[in-house]
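Reading a protein record of the kind used here takes only a little practice. The integers have meaning only within a learned vocabulary of local backbone shapes. With that in mind, consider the following protein and its fold in token form:
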Amino acid sequence: MNQYLNYEKKKITFSIPKGWNLISAVDKPTIPGVSNPTLEIKRALDHPIGSPKIEYLVRPGMEVVLLFDDLQRPTPVHLAMPEILDRLNRAGVPDERIFGICALGTHPTPTMEQLKKKVGEEVFTRLHGRIFAHDPKASDNVTIGRTHRGTLVEVNRYVAFADLIIGVGECMPHPAAGFGGGFKIIMPGVCSYRSVASHHFTWMRHRSSRVNVLEGNSFFEEIVDAGRLSRMPFKLDFIINDKKEVIKAFAGDPVAEHREASNYAASLYLVPLQKLADVTITSAFPLEVGVQATKALTMAGFCTRSGGAIVWVAPQKEAGSILPLVKEMGSDESAGDFHRRLIEGNIPDHLKSFGISYIMQVVNFKELSEKFSVFHVTEGLSPEQVKMMKFSYSANLQESINQLAEKMPKADVAIFPSGGNIIPEIR
């Protein structure tokens, strides 16, 4: 019986061995975006969840900080911020009392031209001289407290002293936090490097730190704690498809709106499975470029039994961004040893310029190589590079399946034709 994976703009067909039992082959087509995203933004802001409207939160004379995510996210900040600015103006706060902060976490700092592209010409002009990128290593980041579990929370000084903070971001599945969005615009968005490192490295491997889990997820709950300390009362989050189109917008209290947005995202991307797979065959599509391509492999790890196999298909034609990850995978350190090194603050020199979420990937990938047999079907990486990752290289999908069948003549197999945008869940 022929199956397929989506790969770039085509489909790769293959067959599975007779002894393999197919437990899932669900494909998730692209959800169409709304016809008028500006009207969707206005609808969300007019009907906030668990919060008054922005107009009722602000008072004349207040100093307001608008937080927005960086260029690694497709959030339509250029459409959202003009509407928010207009509402603040009508409530008595002129543009001169408003600041825009790019909440980049520990990601690379964008240029002013990139910030202009993100917020759009209108907002860049209206907030001229008052748009900045957060600096996680700045000496003037301000300590605002500790979470209930003891994580020190240091934030951007504009955020620390603002009268009102409003965030704009997106809510999509996240491998550790359950879902992006909500208070993630605060932690890691505008926190100091050491706060983000303490939080991320402490909770990244906890069993509850996983996609589609909010209740009892310590990684997520610490983010909420940090967000509450920041006093941010209002957030606008988008659900966005792989074509960068707005599917739906949610606004209001950062916890309440985020929960509804997360439930909605789960309804779009959830793939239920009756059991853990012995073999998972997954495509990176539609997130095939750079580090984004690794998401499919991470998701496959959530639904494959320990000791099983994952066939990960990704073109890797723009592989430059993952080469430092490949290099570190080639070391002899185990996932546990490398994780302990990070907690001690001993980050390898060649990774220090990268964001903390990127460095976390080294631990995740080392763990995947220790827990599963991973076959990487790719054009962009050489056999030697794949071998450095402790994975098996293959240039041909059917060939890798045939090799696996010799070792595993009987297996329950899950196939994800578009593994980059699914949430596997064992029921």
